[in-house]
Amino acid sequence: MESLEERISRLESIEAIRYLQAKYQRCLDTRDFDGLDACFDDNVVSAYDNGKISYKGKAEVLGFLKKVMTEHMPSTHLIHGGEIDIISPTSAKAKWYLEDFLLHRIFWVKLHGAAIYDVEYVKDDSSWKIKTIGYTRCYQYFEHRGILNLLTLGKTSFLDAYKKLKKHNQDSI
User: Fold this and answer.
1) So what's the pLDDT on residue 154?
2) Are 40 and 127 in contact (CB under 8 A)?
3) Which residues lie closer than 8 Å to 172 by C-beta, 6 or more apart?
4) Which is it for the CA torsion 16, 21, 24, 25, positive or negative?
């Protein structure tokens, strides 16, 4: 059985991780890349789009996010829940329910989706950092100028569905 001090320490870690994950989401949507940098462990590994897009190390992960999260694409990434497990005083993992909305101003594209984030955290001398981060899509709905609407479920990404639709359209000509 945990002592009172151990239980308090575990609860403080859970709250620090909630704060860190909320900061990550806010910094992502506000394009605060210095803030994002502070969220990551130096050796962070990311796996976006059901693991199809993966980067290793803070510089690669931030480089990818800077490339895709531009001022031309406002976004909202909302997290819910937070099933946080403290593995040790310096290690934790969590599952978060994500609902995201992205708009692309130039290409008139809208994406709305849901996913489950899987995140691992590591604590250095002073604070918790994101060690690994990735998500698996539950669904995503893609709309292009109101003409093309695609709903993809589970592990099918928008790109997979778009390629199939494009091939289908070419085959039927």
Assistant:
1) 61
2) no
3) none
4) negative
- Burial of 60-88, coded b for 16+ CB within 10 Å and e otherwise, reads ebbeebeeebeeebebebebeebebebee
Rg over alpha carbons for the chain, rounded to the nearest Å, is 18
Dihedral class, residue 31 (left if φ above 0, else alpha if ψ from -120 to 50, else beta): left
3-state secondary structure 54-94: EEECHHHHHHHHHHHCCCCCCEEEEEEEEEEEEEECCEEEE
**CA-to-CA distance for 100 and 122, rounded, in angstroms?**
25
Task: State residue 105's pLDDT score.
Answer: 78
pLDDT at position 13: 97
Its pTM surpasses 0.85: no
C-alpha closest to that of 152 among 50, 77, 5: 50
CA–CA separation, 73 vs 104, rounded Å? 4
pLDDT below 70 — which residues of the chain? 145-173
DSSP state of 15: H
* Nearest C-alpha neighbor of 134 from the set 30, 39, 52, 13: 52
Separation of alpha carbons 40 and 12, rounded Å? 19
Q: Are 39 and 129 in contact (CB under 8 A)?
A: yes
